[in-house]
Design goal:
Blueprint lengths: L1 H28 L22 H13 L22 H8 L3 E4 L8 E4 L13 H7 L11 H4 L3 H10 L15 E2 L7 E2 L20 H16 L3 H29 L5
Antiparallel strand pairs: 1-2, 3-4
Bound molecules: heme C.
The site of heme C has 21 residues, from helix 6.
Length: 260
């Protein structure tokens, strides 16, 4: 009876699909990681560039909030001219951090204000200290985190604003916080950004979303500082090729103008 077989097959297929969908919903309820919403970032697209004002504000957020736990080892303070800070501003910003230097003539290490040529300071002397201060978890270096994580900036932004109460049935481990964008749903980093937690000098309102947006822009720039220049080069090359193509077409017309 081919007809019945076909019906049975269809029913089995529908059953399987329903089963998979059912599983997916249960997994979600149990605190499975969620795909972050897609955001419109200034640097996206072939002509997109970094929003420098946002990146500058983002550095301030990093400085005032994140730098107490996270290093950014691949950055020197002088690199900050890349997001539009002047050299004088960079000197002043660097001087707000203390770096270990030495030894002095007595053989002692000492702390001094950082110079533009210094690397970003590390909040902890070593990994053990970092873990000790963070309930056993290690705050990762943020230099290239925007490139290292799937969904990049979309993920970082969603993570930073994604703290909420755990859904029913989810038992938080000691010292953990619920965030459905973090793999497994439980993260050792508390929600660190609060409304008005930093003061912006350009008049932008420091809402949580704004700070998260700005610091994400900053982390993206840190992970790929030369993207703007690369895109500029691309546009120049395309422009050059276009002009060159027109010239060659004119030359060709000229050369063949007597031939009919
Ligand atoms: C009090 C210390 C502390 C502060 C301040 C802090 N973090 Fe974290 N952060 C952590 C710890 C600890 C982890 C590791 C979490 C884990 O593995 O569960 C972490 C992890 C992260 C991660 C990695 C998430 C992943 O996918 O692995 C990012 C990104 C991050 N923090 C960004 C920030 C930003 C941006 C700020 C500033 C707005 C900030 N953090 C402030 C402690 C901190």
């Amino acid at each position: 009876m081919p007809m019945t077989t076909a019906v049975l097959r269809t029913l089995a297929l529908v059953g399987a699909v329903a089963g998979v969908l059912g599983l997916a919903t249960t997994a979600h309820a149990a605190g499975e990681t969620v795909t972050p919403p897609n955001q419109n970032w200034s640097w996206e697209g072939p002509f997109g560039t970094y929003d420098r004002a946002a990146a500058q504000r983002g550095f301030l957020v990093y400085k005032q909030v994140c730098s107490s736990c996270h290093s950014m080892e691949q950055l020197d303070y002088r690199h900050l001219t890349g997001i539009g800070f002047s050299e004088a501003e960079v000197s002043a910003l660097a001087a707000g951090f203390l770096v270990v230097d030495g030894p002095d003539e007595n053989g002692d290490m000492f702390r001094r204000p950082a110079l533009p040529s210094d690397g970003f300071t590390n909040p902890y002397e070593n990994e053990q200290m970092a873990r000790l201060a963070n309930n056993g978890s290690l705050p990762p270096d943020l230099s290239v985190i925007a490139k290292a994580r799937e969904y990049g900036a979309d993920y970082l932004y969603a993570l930073l604003i994604g703290y909420e109460d755990p859904p029913e049935g989810v038992e938080l481990r000691a010292g953990m916080h619920y965030n459905r964008y973090f793999s497994g749903g439980q993260i050792a980093m508390p929600s660190m950004i609060v409304d008005g937690g930093v003061e912006y000098i350009d008049g932008t309102e420091p809402f949580v979303n704004q700070q998260a947006w700005d610091v994400t822009t900053f982390m993206m720039w840190a992970a790929e500082p030369h993207m703007d220049r690369r895109k500029e080069m691309g546009v120049m090359v395309i422009g050059f090729l276009a002009v060159f193509a027109v010239l060659m077409w004119l030359v060709k017309r000229r050369v063949w103008s007597d031939t009919h």
